[in-house]
User: Fold this.
Amino acid sequence: MDILKPTAVIGTNAWGGSLYGKAVRGSYVEDDIIIDAMRAAKEEDIPLYDLARDYGLGKAQRMIGEFGTKDIFISAKYTPFTHYKPGCVRKSLEKDLKDFKRDYVDIYWLHLPTDVEDHLNEIIDLYHEGKIRHIGVSNFTLDECKKSKKILDTAGIPLYGVQNHYSIICRDWEDNGLLEWCKENSILFWAWAVLEEGMLVDPRIKKRSPMKFTFNRKIKKLKGLYKVMIKVAERHDIKVPQVAIAFCSTKGIVPMCGCRKPEQVTDLAEAVKVRLTPGEIRRLEEAADTANVNIMGADIFRAFVLKSKK
Assistant:
């Protein structure tokens, strides 16, 4: 896989212990199954994993380090829950590297736009030290992305990508110009929660999970969209969730999906090879707009962004 041209990313937010798996995802997947999923990812040529210190209540990063990080790509993050303090990014990254049992990460993201210049400057220092191969930003607005690019441009470093929420029912970043800006500047756009935490799946398959229980009323409003997704899935001989993934890849967006089982990795790899027709894209968008359902929200983490002290 070419890290500059990834087709898909495997999310690890659902990795963790049995209590976390059952409480958040409705089920627990044993470590040996996750290891099998990692083998499948290598075979499918999508050995790219997205991590953060809080995933799996802090266990996900240690898990991947124990399973082995040879011949895989690691995407990690620094999440600024407080204002910038000298050395804060370095300290966090060093903990990450210890968890990963390696001396660098392939992509490092500033996870929230708090004190952007200060945090990015420290990330730039770590980049020059060889501890970071590529730099990205996550949950940033268009203006914040432009500011970040300018800072990196000054340092002679390209902005690798933007990692924001995007799905069939959440296309705000397309509407406000961020996606187009990324394309114009050859900046990758990684989309997280493309399945809206399990809401954009086949409604005919009954699965219980805390998320589905929480959003039960909203699921009923998605019936029209489900019908279109089912028809598109039948036309391409794929599963309903794969339609949501193919929707992103068809638009040149890199979909991120949580995978804990080999079959989930296979589904992801197959979905990104599917190209939907303009008519199918239009019908999916029309059905989504008619439903007018907001599950996660394009900027759900804005409340955690601290105002500048300057």
Q: What stands out?
A: The chain has a mean pLDDT of 93.
